Each structure stands twice: as C-alpha cells, then as structure tokens.
Amino acid sequence: MPSDEPRSRRKVLQLGSAVAATAFIAGCGGPGDENGEEPGNGNGVEPENGAEPGNGNGENGDPEANGEPENGEENGNGNDDNGENDENGENGDAIDPDDEIMLGGETQAWMGQEPESIADEENPTLTLEEGESYEITWENLDGVGHNIEIRDDDDEVVDDYETEIIDEEGETQTLEVDEVTDEMAAYVCEPHEGTMHGDIEVE
To answer: Where is this region: Disordered (predicted)?
Structure first.
C-alpha cells in the first residue's frame, strides 16, 4: 500500500503539471494571437498612414494644381494689364489734327505745353498723322532769339517750313503745316539746334 500512494501522488503531480503546461501554452497562445492581431492592426494602421500621406500628396497636389492656375491667371492678368498699357500707348500715339500744338521756347529746350500728352516734356516727340494739317504755336520764354524749323533726316528744311527769329519774351509765333509728309523728322530752333531739337514721328 505505501508504494501505491507515491505513484498516485506522482500521477497527480504529473497531471497537474500537464494541466499547468497546457494552460501556460494556451495562455501564451492567447497573447501570441493578440500580439498577432495587434501587428495586424498595426499593419492596418500603416495603410491608414499610407492613406494619409496619399491624402497629403493629394492635398499638396491640389495646392500645386491650384497654384498653377492661380499663377497662370496672374500671368494672364499681367498680360491683360500689358495689353491695356499697349492700348493706352495707342490712344496717345498721334496728336489730333484739330488740337493746336503749343510749345515754349527757351535756350535749354523746347517745353511741351499742349496738348496734354506732351505737357511739361522737354523736346517732346510730336507724333503726326500723314496727310493731315497742323498748327504749331510757340512762345518765347526767355527773351533770346529763337525760331522753329521742320527738318528731314538730312537736316534740311522741309518745304520751307521755317519762321523768322524773334527775341521778345512772351512773343508767339505759329507755323502752319499744310500737309504732313514722311520726310518730316525733327523740329528745331536754328540758333540753338543743339538743345532745342525734338523728333517728329509720322504715322
């Protein structure tokens, strides 16, 4: 009988150990599965993170896309603005034949007075319409002798368009141009042609 009791105790201990081992393995398997699930979730999060960068790229793409049209629109507006400036330039090209051209004569330069497009300019360029007639009136501003002549590219007076020299301050002179021709290149004061010299452009 005594020999049977130790065997029974051994069996009980072995069974207990087996149960404990099974429970331990089952326990390890459980966490292992949970850990397995967690990495699975982690992998699931990684695609989400991947999706976020994807969204970020999409967002970055959108601003870039938006930026490109915006820049394009801005450039387009810039071109439109330039177009408007060109239009303004075209509007100011030729002096209306009905407008009297007024200049001030002084030794340092011809001073533009009228029309407004040449006002306050020194030796302003006179843009005239070919075939039209104009009146150019100037006033002696400094009491020094001046006159006005229209010359060609060879510095020759065109069709006798020149006046006598006057030297009284405040005195005025008018040169009547019957017909503008493409020969006309400049208007000058003969005594002070180095400083009182303006261009004529014919359209």
So the answer is: 25-107
pTM of the model: 0.56
User: What is 101-202's CATH superfamily?
Assistant: Cupredoxins -  blue copper proteins (2.60.40.420)
Residue that has been written with the tokens 């999409």 in this structure: 58
Task: Tell me how far apart the alpha carbons of residues 105 and 124 are, in angstroms, rounded to a whole number.
Answer: 12
pLDDT in tens, the chain (203 residues): 454 554 544 444 454 444 444 444 445 444 444 444 444 444 444 444 444 444 444 444 444 444 444 444 444 444 444 433 333 333 457 999 999 999 999 999 999 999 999 999 999 999 999 999 999 999 999 999 999 999 999 999 999 999 999 999 999 999 999 999 999 999 999 999 999 999 999 99
Helix (H, G, I), strand (E, B) or coil at 27: helix
d(CA 92, CA 64): 41
Q: What are phi and psi of 91, to 5 degrees?
A: -65, -30
Q: Is residue 191 within 8 Å of residue 147, measured between CB atoms?
A: yes
Strands (E), 68-156: 101-106, 109-114, 126-128, 134-140, 149-151
